[in-house]
Amino acid sequence: TVICFLIFFGFTAVFGEDADDIISKVQKKYKSAEDIVIHFSRVFTWSLSGRTNTLKGKIYIKGEKFIKYETDDQVFVTDGKDVWSYSSATNQTIVDVYKPDEDEFLPRELIFNFHKRYESKYMKREKIGDVNCYVIEAVPKTDNEIQFLKVWIDSKRLTTVKIEYTNINDDVITYNIFKISFDNNLNKGFFSFKSPQGAEIIDLRNQ
Q: What's the domain count of the chain?
């Protein structure tokens, strides 16, 4: 799952700004864009074994409905109504009615639904490399797959640098975001999917 950008509860002022101000500015910047392209790496760490799995990919977002998620072995595309999910490992395309999942395309959830779904518990400043970041730690308001969430925000550019969350199995999933571009002239046709020749197509929309 993905997935793939904030409220502060019981806050005190930090460096002259509070979390609500920062969150609002980040969301305003993201929502004002015609579209967003996010380049990321995702590290999944299993709690029981300590094993990790790393993949790289891109998330394309246009408004609240249009999403495309690409990695080396998977493509997920939705227009807000239907969803196409292709796996190169199985050479299958599954088509279904889109049912938003709270940790699916987590960066998108942080852009549009953070205030509704999360309460922040703590805030501080921290450096990632040479980037000064605001750090927001949050918990969901209702039970879901995500148990605990941390977000690092570039304090100068007001863009997301890193997202880390713990799921119900205590596995840790980390998104390192190394590039974000705005207003890339993506049209709605970009968020359609043509299954590769020879792939099996499984249509679940009428089931």
A: 1
DSSP annotation of 42: E
**Which residues make Cβ contacts (< 8 Å) with residue 121, sequence separation at least 6?**
9, 10, 137, 138, 139
Say if 71 falls within a structural domain.
no
Structural domain boundaries, residue 112:
19-34+42-54+102-184
State pLDDT tens for residues 52-100.
Answer: 999 999 999 998 889 999 998 999 999 989 999 999 999 999 999 988 6
Name the β-bridge partners of 95. Answer: 84, 203
Return the ∠ at Cα 55 (arms to 122 and 155), rounded to 5°: 35
CATH number, domain of 49, equals 2.50.20.10
Say what the pLDDT of residue 109 is: 67
In a domain, 135, yes or no: yes
Name, in order, each residue with C-beta under 8 angstroms of 109's C-beta and a sequence gap of 6 or more.
3, 102, 103, 117
